[in-house]
Design a protein that fits this description.
The structure is a homotetramer of 233-residue chains. Chain A is mostly helical. Chain A contains 9 helices and no strands.
């Protein structure tokens, strides 16, 4: 009997397993990453490693996006089909939202946990700048480590997770270091916009912009990688 | 002359070496992981890395379970035989118990060291929820990294250890982040239930529940991995 | 359509892509590594991991030098041609300078951020000693992990980044642990010599000396590695 | 022109290169690992990672022992010849001693830096117990990751370094977590026994005992690994 994360031979069943993997992976990533109590370097370490292990856990099933910005970038460069991209994004946001709902059950004084916003005296514009640049760096790690040809095979997911870790150590005190629209939308939907729907919207625009900027860096087409091949077929 | 952790060609000798590896691996993992003095992020880092290196040290001998929840999950999905599973679990609990006894010898003011229980204002029910979800995440890492086909080969044990590290950073302050019935039972047997046999029992139920929930996620049968193949034969 | 980081088949286009990769990689490495607010172990972790992931991101395009000391050492040992070496160094310094300029935009109270200099009671001479020895260690990691034959393939960039991390934990409080002339020059150009052009010059001399000392350690010639092969052709 | 760390084809030249690698690797490991100012978890992280990267840097030249306890264990199990083992141990102690001498030059208020001894209320006997058990764990990681067949190839040196990191987090506050006679002898020779020659001698006995205990665990003979093969020939 195949498990939830395994599809039968036909491609419809395989797509369903991939969407389930994106949902579960993003749920567990956001559940763990959003719950770290201390807002300091532990948050960076926990989020980077939680992303890394969940990419490993889902890479061979869905490609391990776990992030609408990654899905959007690979959609733009032709590595992910439109229907699959939409299904992934819905699953990612649903997973992150469930994580925030679970925080209300499992964390004492949970209000606002997992929310993102500027800090350390930074303006919303400065936080926006950090989100754009760090998300571009994350997408660059995805292409070089996992999508490009040649890539770094077994080390690919590690480089993506550690990129988030390093970016969160540097930009975390100023922007929160979301680098992921699902991680922004999940707590915003559960905690009433996390204090500022305008801020939430700014972060989403930053991630979309970063995905758009990333496309001309690695480009489209002939360097379609083995990993994605395995996922699509 | 083969060492303790090497069996002769016949399978009975190989099973004995595997059980010895589970005992030694869990003993050293619990000895190191349970002794970290500061109850903060160092505990998470030490436990995650100690688990990682002990899985590497025993993976080619026993499969590197070192955790009755992992053994139970692989028993349910048909990757571990019943007799082997029982022998592993006894060895794991014995190793963790010896570690707690050793703590009494080697740590000044050792009373209660290595015990688990709710913290940070969390109820026992909330700690139970964290134990179930984080143990599921750990078992998911075991299947994707080590059991499934294709898996991540040489990176598999790293993903399992880093999952514990990330989970302990997030859930450690609330549940202690055991994710392992042997780690709960060892100190409980040595330190009189660690203050609450009901709490200890709750943690054990959580781990068994997580193993049961994990089976339908990755499923049984045709994806039996190379690693387990190597262990069984 | 190939991206910026992909060259066409002809070698002039490939060299341009490699120089672009050195620019972008050094820019993002310096942007993240130079911005960590707390001058403690977080700085070491962030810089080590940011270097690691950017080497992974550029290794298959430019060889992932991201450091004039590495380029100089491989020039001396005959692994990098003179014209390529000069182009790389210009790109590296330009990337680090842009990072410091970006810090002025994106970090509140940015003055002097990312600057290097002696600390913890160390004299400039002691800081010079640490820079020479730690840069030699970094270059040694580059040769053993990435250039030499056999090397450590997929783990090579990780060993280089973790060398910086370990060196920055030890020498960071005394010298700042630059290990990279571009990282020294970038903030010095933007923040008026970082308080001491003599100090800046001392650090640059230290890095050049380390590159010179490293050549007779690993030597030139017949052990030209696969990685560099891939980059040159 | 081959570098210092490269031997010509004849085996005498190759042995000289291996001994030079053990000297340089242990020197840089002790230089970095012994200099971390804060005696807390940063010490553990720095020492674990510095060991890891220096094993990577020397593994293909000398086997990357960098520790007389490792050399002694592989001597007992027949993986290292007696003449090579003696030369390695002399080089390791010389490297660690040079590192301590360098600390006197490069660290303000260097007296006693890098010394080991009991702490946190532990007796010398308790520190001895930790040294024996943690060194056994380290040697176990060496055999499973690097010597045994099958081993973990490219991940081997990482598992050894991370074992030291985890052990130093747990046992560091009680024993200092040397796990290495060269690291004990180096500062003791430079700083007059580090306050207690009896303590120094106890640590050396602990490491030798651990090497002796480790032999029957992994055993001798038919599982001679590829790595050592590559080194010997």
């Amino acid at each position: 009997m195949p498990g939830i994360l395994q599809g039968d031979a036909n491609s419809r069943s395989r797509l369903a397993a991939a969407v389930a993997a994106e949902f579960m992976g993003t749920f567990l990533f956001a559940l763990i990453g959003g719950a770290v109590p201390a807002k300091n370097h532990q948050t960076a370490v926990c989020n980077g490693l939680a992303l890394m292990v969940m990419i490993y856990a889902t890479a061979n099933i869905s490609g391990g996006h776990l992030n609408p910005a990654v899905t959007a970038a690979t959609l733009i460069t032709g590595h992910t089909a439109m229907s699959r991209a939409l299904a992934y994004m819905v699953a990612q946001v649903a997973g992150a939202t469930l994580a925030s709902a679970m925080h209300m059950l499992l964390v004492p004084k949970a209000a606002g946990i997992g929310c993102f916003g500027p800090g350390g005296g930074a303006t919303l514009g400065q936080a926006f700048g950090w989100e754009v640049l760090t998300t571009m760096m994350l997408v660059m790690a995805v292409y070089s480590g996992c999508v490009g040809q040649p890539n770094f095979g077994v080390a690919g997911p590690a480089t993506v997770g550690l990129t988030l870790l390093a970016c969160a150590l540097a930009a975390g005190p100023l922007s929160g270091a979301a680098l992921n629209p699902a991680r922004v939308l999940g707590p915003a939907l559960v905690f009433g916009g996390c204090g500022s729907w305008a801020g939430t919207f700014t972060y989403l625009v930053g991630a979309v912009a970063a995905a758009g900027f990333s496309a001309p860096i690695y480009g489209a087409g002939p360097h379609l990688g083995r990993w994605m091949d395995a996922v699509e077929h």
